[in-house]
């Protein structure tokens, strides 16, 4: 596309209710659209970020009834933009399973959801600083990868902890993704150590743009997230990066021919070989 694609990543500090979350993110999306962004991406947990189980359970709604999801769909239609709700925590719809789905939703300029992706890899870990996370207790992992069509090329969908699984990103690239979204709410210890290097590695391995909008700062439930939303080019170069944790709009222009150029220069996606397992 002549002139490239104008995108915006929205860095947030999402509150603990959908109503407050919508009020928090809407002005940032309006700012992005006013600045010319045609494709806007928000972080993981855009509709609610709450790890206290009782409050979280009370906040989770069906996708069709979530105030933030409905409001963001209307906003995309009003502004005439493509919008990736990086993820919304919604009821999974699975009978007998009270866990939520951590779900990416791609919304077109008519406000319609054109693609969904439920986070495949849930974050169960005890960090060296004593922080413990057991996402599997409240989130039901998805069971399939997802690539979505946009006017500018195919978009691979991932969420946060998925960044540590290179084979997923490789499959997305082989399915035609020239852009891969990595909406996140990274912890501070892992973000400081690994965030940028993981994003750059996935871009280099796939020859794709990596678009990573993030949560940042101290949240109402007591957690801290890393921020530093980042756009990485297919050659692994940083195209744009927030250097802080505060809510903001990060813009970039993507040359959509760059992915093909990177994959021609290093055609690793075509060089897979079968091999015997290590013993």
TrEMBL record:
SUPFAM superfamilies: Carbon-nitrogen hydrolase (SSF56317). InterPro entries: C-N_Hydrolase, C-N_Hydrolase_sf, Nit1/2_C-N_Hydrolase, UPF0012_CS. It comes from the Bacteria. GO terms for molecular function: hydrolase activity, acting on carbon-nitrogen (but not peptide) bonds, in linear amides. Residues 5-256 form the CN hydrolase domain. Keywords: Hydrolase. The keyword Transcription regulation does not apply. Pfam families: CN_hydrolase (PF00795). The keyword NAD does not apply. CDD domains: nit. PANTHER family: DEAMINATED GLUTATHIONE AMIDASE, NITRILASE-RELATED. Belongs to the carbon-nitrogen hydrolase superfamily. NIT1/NIT2 family. This is Putative amidohydrolase. It comes from Brevundimonas aurantiaca.
């Amino acid at each position: 596309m002549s002139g490239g694609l104008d995108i915006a990543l929205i860095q947030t500090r999402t509150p603990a209710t959908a109503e407050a979350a919508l009020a928090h993110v809407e002005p940032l999306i309006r700012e992005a659209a006013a600045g010319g962004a045609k494709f806007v991406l928000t972080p993981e947990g855009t509709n609610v970020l709450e790890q206290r189980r009782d409050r979280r359970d009370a906040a989770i709604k069906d996708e069709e009834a979530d105030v933030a999801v409905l409001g963001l769909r209307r906003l995309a239609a009003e502004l005439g933009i493509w919008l990736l709700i990086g993820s919304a925590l919604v009821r999974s719809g699975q009978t007998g399973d009270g866990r939520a789905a951590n779900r990416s939703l791609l919304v077109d300029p008519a406000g319609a959801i054109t693609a969904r992706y439920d986070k495949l890899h849930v974050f169960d870990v005890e960090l060296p600083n004593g922080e413990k996370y057991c996402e599997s207790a409240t989130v039901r992992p998805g069971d399939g990868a997802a690539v979505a069509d946009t006017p500018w090329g195919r978009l691979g969908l991932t969420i946060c902890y998925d960044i540590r699984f290179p084979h997923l990103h490789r499959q997305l690239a082989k399915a035609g993704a020239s852009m891969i979204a990595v909406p996140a709410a990274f912890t501070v210890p892992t973000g400081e150590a690994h965030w940028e290097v993981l994003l750059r590695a996935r871009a280099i391995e796939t020859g794709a743009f990596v678009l990573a909008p993030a949560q940042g700062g101290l949240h109402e439930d007591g957690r801290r997230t890393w921020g530093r939303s980042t756009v990485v080019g297919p050659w692994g170069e940083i195209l744009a990066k927030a250097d802080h944790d505060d809510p903001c709009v990060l813009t970039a222009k993507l040359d959509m021919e760059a992915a093909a150029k990177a994959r021609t220069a290093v055609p690793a996606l075509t060089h897979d070989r079968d091999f015997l397992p290590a013993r």
